[in-house]
Write a structure and sequence with these properties.
By secondary structure, the protein is of the alpha+beta class. It folds into 2 domains: 218 residues; 169 residues, Reverse transcriptase/Diguanylate cyclase domain (Alpha-Beta Plaits). The chain has 12 helices and 8 strands. Helix 12 links the parallel strand 6 and strand 7. The longest helix has 27 residues. It is elongated, with a radius of gyration of 31 Å.
């Protein structure tokens, strides 16, 4: 038969290992990691106090140890809440510990009953696990891998069931309340499951952190470091996905390609630092004109693309003209002084079945026409044939002039 002390010591060792691993993530700045670290630290101390039962007062090995484990549980919950962008609600979490503390004191000093104490602690742990599963399931991030969040929620539910089973099991034991109750086969099996709660949930927490770090890495790879707009690679990946979605939903899409006029002269006059400031300023101005569903990317040195889902060319043209006016109305403030600049744009409406490359080619043709016509202008490329037709079979229409 497995000695209960072995199960507790093993859990303490696992929590210690995870404490070290979580400590390595403290510098990541990810919300919730500090709470998860503190939860494992509290669990290690609590388990060590339990292992010393008989050699230290019951006030420490029973009351303090169980209350510290309960505090670790709610601290883990608070970490998950912060990680998911929810308030931790510490006053409510601390208040939830009070009934458990009263129960432990009563069933130790007023009526010494190990089954009653186990039932109180397991009911508390089960409640925290259920609350945790609900929190993670309801508030898991959308648009990201669901796997680590489902694992956390499912494991929390399983541990809640194990805790309930352990509490019920102890209430069925007959005889005088004695520490020997912990040595029965059923007790040891359920104790092993209970001892695995914090280490397992901590591993789930690290999976969620890993998901965030991967998402951040992908985001960094898909972002232009200078302006914050999507990189060309990131823009094309998102644009192709949006075009596929538009094809399924039979909704319109427009593509606007914008070029900053005479940008070489800006660099020659203000230096590259001034030119960089102008590029960042343009992105800030553009973002104020776009909707959340619109996609902005930097596809060249001073060339940007804006994908406008659910937007007909006429509506896209009005947005492009607003952007053009907003840019000319607000000089960029650089270290060398204010810089007034303008933009030229080429616009094309997506045709069902058309590839992003072909759509971009048509928008590029419209941009070339805008530049050839004097700049500070937006032109629209109107397709006169099927989407599979060559660009040379299409026509370009004037859309807006300065």
């Amino acid at each position: 038969m497995l000695d209960p002390a072995v199960a507790i010591a093993t859990s303490a060792l696992m929590s210690t290992v995870l404490l070290v691993l979580l400590g390595s993530l403290l510098r990541s700045g990810i919300a919730g990691v500090l709470e998860w670290f503190a939860a494992n630290l509290g669990m290690v101390i609590a388990l060590l106090l339990i292992l010393m039962r008989g050699r230290i007062p019951d006030t420490l090995s029973v009351l303090a140890a169980n209350m510290l484990m309960a505090l670790s549980a709610v601290t883990y919950y608070a970490g998950c809440a912060r990680f998911l962008g929810r308030p931790a609600r510490w006053p409510a979490l601390i208040a939830s510990l009070l009934p458990l503390g009263v129960a432990l004191v009563y069933w130790r000093y007023a009526v010494d009953s190990i089954p009653a104490r186990v039932l109180a602690t397991t009911l508390f742990s089960a409640a925290v696990c259920v609350a945790l599963a609900h929190l993670v399931f309801r508030h898991r991030p959308r648009g990201r891998s669901a796997y680590p969040y489902w694992v956390t929620a499912v494991m929390a539910c399983l541990f809640a069931l194990c805790q309930l089973a352990r509490g019920i099991y102890f209430m069925t034991l007959d005889g005088v309340s004695s520490p020997l109750m912990f040595a029965s086969t059923g007790s040891v099996v359920l104790l092993v499951a209970s001892a695995a709660i914090m280490p397992t949930l901590s591993m789930s927490a690290m999976m969620m952190v890993h998901d965030v770090l991967l998402a951040d890495a992908r985001e960094a790879a898909n972002r232009d470091f200078l302006t914050g707009a999507l990189s060309r690679q990131g823009f094309e990946a998102v644009a192709r996905a949006r075009l596929a979605e538009a094809g399924r939903q039979h909704s319109p899409v427009s593509l606007l390609i914008v070029d900053l006029d005479h940008f070489k002269s800006i660099n020659d006059t203000l230096g590259h630092a001034g030119g960089d400031t102008v590029l960042r300023d343009f992105v800030r101005v553009t973002q104020t004109q776009l909707r959340r569903s619109d996609v902005l990317g930097r596809i060249g040195g001073e060339e940007f693309a804006v994908l406008l889902p659910a937007t007909e060319p006429d509506d896209a043209l009005r947005l492009a003209d607003r952007l053009r006016n907003a840019v000319t109305a607000r000089p960029a403030i650089t270290a060398a002084g204010p810089c007034t600049y303008s933009i030229s744009g080429g616009l094309a409406g997506w045709q069902p079945g058309e590839t992003l490359d072909h759509l971009s080619t048509r928008a590029d043709h419209a941009l070339y026409e805008a530049k050839r016509s004097g700049r500070n202008t937006v032109c629209v490329h109107q397709a006169t044939s099927r989407a599979s037709a060559l660009p040379s079979q299409d026509s370009v229409e004037w859309a807006s002039v300065s």
